[in-house]
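Lecture notes, structural biology module. Today: joint structure prediction for complexes of two components.
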Amino acid sequence: MAAAANQHQSPEPPPLLLLHRFPSFSLPFLPFLQTKYTVLDPHADPPHPSFPNLSKSARVMLCFGPKPVTSEDLDRYPSVEYVVGTSAGINNFDLAAFRRRGIRVTSAGDAFSDDVADYALGLAIDVLRRVSAADRFVRAGSWPVQNEYTLGSKVSGKRVGIVGLGSIGSRVAKRFEAFGCSIAYNSRKQKPHVLYPYYANVKDLASNVDVLIVCCALTNETQRIINKDVMTALGKTGVIVNVGRGALIDEKELVELLVRGEIGGAGLDVFENEPHVPQPLLTLDNVVLSPHKAVLTPDSFAAIEELVCSNLEAFFSNQPLRAEVAHD
Amino acid sequence: MEASIGVLLIRPLSAYLQQELCKRYTLFKFWQEPQHLRREFLREHSNSIRAVVANGVQGPDAEMIDALPLLEIVASHSSGLDKIDLDKCRERGIRVTYTPDALTDEVADMAILLTLATVRRICEADQYVRRSEWKNADFKLTTKFSGKAVGIIGLGRIGSAIAKRAEAFGCSIGYHSRSQKPNSRYKYYPSVIELALDSQILIVACALTHETRHIVNRDVIDALGSNGVVINIARGSHIDEAELVSALVEGRLGGAGLDVLENEPEAPTRLLGLDNVVLSPHVGASTVETRRVMADLVVQNLDAHFSGKTLLTPVI
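The predicted structure, tokenised, for the full assembly:
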């Protein structure tokens, strides 16, 4: 069969694939892609001699990591028809510019969702039960010396509010339910087949829950969706967890409220200006801090590699793409 | 008027408990006595102490029971009874009560938390940020939890609650217990080694008895392997701690999440320096909410005893 197929084909050069990334983000499956595509990497060392010319003909751009893809980038690479995202979030893409040019885009889809949901629960329960603080306590040798240890707060039975009931949010909900927690949510629109109570307004959601999990997409509408009013509504014993994007929360307000004890605690995997973390948080025992690692597992990496490779093949053979982002 | 009843409280437990006990009884605060004066303290008050409030970490042993000739009841603020000399109590006709159901959810929550914290390196990552190491580099990859094979030793109230939670993460559940549970949908393993061979995460959730001491021994640790993780929310003596520490140091075991230790509150020095363990000071049931429920049950049991009524949650 292979012989018959070969009769029709003259050897074609591998399709061009333009890599778009910050220098510090190196793509783990680059060697594999290089066996199937002519990968044009602007940060290649030494630089590819034909990069300036070839890049203008590339039909596909693979964006690895949070580097923005702007209108100017698309001007520079005028043949791009398809941008492959490698994150669940696509806030770094100028989607309006994509739409105008009819450029297709795919994201990480569900590839990371289990790991992020697991991590959201880990952070939330850690804040409530204070295990990171407890681990520090034991390692400091304080257990034999101090008889008492600050009590945590029971997880089971807490009211959990999910901001963004998408791929990650729905998995968070399922997990918390097994702990006997009740679930309520906020989303752009109410989900028709979902039985959890819906709140059209995040502040109302916050007023009615004990734990708020932020896992929605960052868009123009959701910048600082968690603002002072929302956090005040969550209250003195409320806990907030963010596994979305730092810019979803008014970070300055959050820090002030935590320092003043106006909010119970926070579990944060993302920050407004990573890797910078506001200094006052570094000494608080009612926060758990994490260096944007919710997706850093071998399984998530394998899943994104599979998705990206499969989508590239699909694109070049005119097959449907998975995890395509609709331009709505 | 009857002389006030003396109650010995071994550890502070909660302000609420102390408050409630003081309202009804004369409270003797054992933990406030310096170690070397404790024998004398007991001798001094032995003619008033008629009850001891024990807990999961410290309970009246034979020596303490012998020092208290008027002891009638031990009300334990715990589900576990291994720290109480039950044989001695039986011999003396001393009643013993405990708080069995108050902490099932709490401890199950803790088991899952320790698993996530160990497998996903949450505490280590928190330290990484606090020490400003994130400015230099991203954190390493850690192991996914969802979908892993979880093995539970002991499928009682707590074990079942753990299983229910782990299932929501897509984990497969296997268990070992003294006997197979007739209606369980989980896979039964007749031995802990067989369970460990098939599991990536092994959670100890059984009661401590003569049979279950060191139920996690070198063979079980070897079976679990270098990618395996052991979680202990039961009793320190369930695990051969010396073997555990060696295995962790040598990389023969992937990690451990421990809420209990053999000689708590002392921890082996080598353990304190490992980054593949999470340690907590026996706080599996230490929440504001549960402490209140447990305290109420302790007080209610004492009140029932001293007013001649039926005990609520007796053991003997």
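Point to remember: The longest strand of chain A covers residues 16-21.
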